[in-house]
Amino acid sequence: MTDRLAPVRRHFWFAAAAAGLLLMPSANADPSIERVRGFFCNAKDDSVAFLVAQAKGENEEMAAYAVNKRIAKFSCAYYLPANAIHTGEQTVMEDGLVFKLQKYLFLPEKVERWSGSVFGSLQTAPPRQADI
Predict the structure, then answer these.
(1) pTM assigned to the model
(2) Going edge to edge, which strands form the sheet with 33-40?
(3) Strand, coil or helix: what is 30?
(4) Contact assessment for residue 55 and residue 37, using Cβ atoms and an 8 Å cutoff
(5) Are the C-beta atoms of 77 and 64 separated by less than 8 Å?
């Protein structure tokens, strides 16, 4: 007796295997590498100081300049689109503000840099005009 469904089963398994191969990620595709751009600082403390200056009303360029001048070295700057790996996040509180910081490893240099944003405020009353 011959099995009339044998060719159908064989085609089914071939199609299933082909579909499985198509769904697998390729060997050289790294999902953790992303293109980032914007203002980054070399140290977490510098990034917090940058964000505090922005929260006080400075634009990004002036906030970066103020941080770099205060520490007397180049730390905060605008980066054009670059390849980086997101390596972590931290929440930091400073001066009654809550910041969300992201840490990236820039490639191919393998240099760690920080970016972030103001996440919220712990202040109950609005800040005085003199504080801004």
Answers:
(1) 0.67
(2) 33-40, 77-94, 97-106, 111-121
(3) coil
(4) no
(5) yes
Phi first, then psi: give them for residue 7, nearest 5 degrees: -65, -35
Q: Which pLDDT belongs to residue 105?
A: 95
Type of residue at 43: A
Instruction: For residue 114, give the H/E element and its range.
Output: strand 111-121
Q: At what angle do helices 44-55 and 60-71 cross, to 10 degrees?
A: 130
Band the pLDDT of 120: cuts 50, 70, 90.
confident
State how far Cα 101 lies from the chain centre.
Answer: 9
* 28-41 pLDDT per residue, tens: 455 589 999 999 99
Q: Is the pLDDT of residue 92 over 60?
A: yes
Locate the DSSP E strands across 11-96: 33-40, 77-94
In the DSSP assignment, the letter for residue 51 is: H
Residue that the structure tokens 């490893």 belong to: 105
> pLDDT averaged over the chain?
80
State the residue for tokens 């730390």: 75
Report the C-alpha gap between 94 and 103 in whole angstroms: 18
Alpha-carbon 81 to chain mean position: 12
